[in-house]
Task: structure prediction
Amino acid sequence: MDATRKRPRKAGSLLPDHWPDELSGQCRLEVGLSGGVDSMVLLHLLVAARKERGFELCAVHVHHGLSAEADAWVAHCARVCEAWQVPLRVRRVAVRVEGGQSLEAVARRERYRVYRESTADAVVLAHHQDDLAETVLLQLLRGGGARALAAMPAWRQDGALALWRPLLARTRDELLAYAREHGIGWVDDDSNLDTRWRRNLLRHRVMPGLAAALPHYRAHLARSAQLAADAAAVLDEVAAADLAACLAGDALSRDGLLALSPPRQRELLRHWCATLGFGLPTPAALESFRGALVAGHAGAVALELAGASLVHYRGRIHLVRERVLPACQPLPALACPQLLRCEAGRLSIEPASPGLPMAWLAGGLSLRARAGGERLAQRAGTRTVKQLLQEAGVLPRLRERWPLLYRGEALVAVPGVAFTQEDRVEAGWRPVWLPD
Result:
């Protein structure tokens, strides 16, 4: 939040004097309302500020279905929102834990998925200074760096989702006192007492001792989080500049990457992964990939992401999305030129001299997945599809998913690589495959 505006704060209000500039003028805010004391206080504060500041206010409750009291929490939120004239949307989600995921992490993921559906200018969350202190300590205990320590900013724009946390300067005790003073009712989630969860363990067994020995620990940890956020912002700026300098088209230059210091190499790769939107690799996986690049291992070297891979091949690091081709995709009648969206990519029909007969575009063409052993007629006999893809420099990861163009049951082209020479004409067309 670089730009802010200030208005007089009414006595007793816990909202900050400074609001994000993004929320100036007419705006619509949606409160993440669990029914607990924190979110109830936040909603009460915003209801009180609504008339003065002139914004629209609504709320969203996420029903996780994890407690026998979940329906009662929905009813509580609905009663309060009706009394306070706040539109409420309720979304039920299915929390399914798979693999090594924690229940808490999956529930949080589903909650934020619901937030992303919001049409408001910002989703407002009731995190306070105690939550921030717990998050900083949890991230430290997990070995997190600057970005992890700065994981709970007051304002965050994540694509189309804007999150605002206006109560980070307030403590849990301040919110409780406010709720009691104003007669605000709330619901209690018994799972918050379960010390098998790390956050609850910190909250009930560690934080009280810290508060007794170091009364200002919350403010100090909040300051550390802000310093970490500043450091993370600088790292992002440097990584963005390094990425721009090392990009060669859609790929990353290996030599350009290795010309940087190891810390900048790691930051560049992390930044690129985040920019591509496929999540961050583990530190161990990232270091293994970087080490293989430095060692100059022959052949393809890959870094696995969620739904994609970074693959090094012939001096370039490419993003390869994990796509599965259907066995056969019949094509409609085509024109030249034309760009056709298909499963796992796009098929471009381009003029070519020589090329394939224009009459073939009328129908009978299909894209098929490779089965292995296919051969395509060339001037000097037939060549295997495998040989043609290798000679064209197609990434090994893409070769197995490269579609083939058939006319009826006859292989007529490896799109973007070669086409049959048996039926070529002087003024024709050629297919080009553009993988996602």
